[in-house]
Design goal:
7-stranded mixed β-sheet, alpha/beta, single chain, 215 residues, Rossmann fold, binds S-adenosylmethionine
Length: 215
Amino acid sequence: MFEDNYRQRGLRQKLVKILRQKGITDEKVLAVMGKVPRHVFFDDALLNHAYEDKAFPIGEGQTISQPYTVAFQTEKLSVRPKDKVLEIGTGSGYQACILMELGATLYTIEYNRVLFEKTRDFLPLMGYKPFFIYGDGSKGLPAKAPFDRIIVTAAAPIVPEALTNQLAEGGILIIPVGNLERQRMIRITKVKGELIKEDFDYFSFVPLKGEKGWG
Ligand code: SAM
């Protein structure tokens, strides 16, 4: 239903090389970045940009994240096969495919109805079948908690307590936190009930909306 030709596979391997140069070292993450097609998420007019290391518009004022950002968050999340993972901000579904290629059982929430419906209909055609949820992910997904891993792919003003509460023992949350211009990538690990916080680089995401986001 979509083409993945020699040229596109070649461009993907070049992208993997760029990710390596930028500091991504996890071979499993690099392998799945080299496997999942990104061009299928692009409109025809933007197709030539699919394997540039840049974020791009996906409609509704939202973006498909930059490949480096996807690889960085995924690397820091250390997903293990069969981990129960919550993704907040389904968007195009590209990050969801990466997580599922690593073996995650994925629950993915989207706040924008148009994107939710588009991705819910498209991803299964690619062979990826996460649990799709329409709603406000800033409150997590208490009905399905706890989660081994939680990833937030939009800029949060704070770390919502609901999310750390929904982490399993040994669980990891990765979330960009800051203002609307830039955010620091934060990783929180739950160890014997304690929350261990680590700070990484700055990134720039679209805002997390909803009750515990920017409203
Ligand atoms: N992971 C996406 C991908 O691979 O394309 C990138 C997502 S984009 C940078 C951020 C997404 O978060 C947008 O689709 C936006 O509508 C969604 N979003 C914003 N606030 C949200 C919320 N409270 N709950 C769920 N999704 C939200």
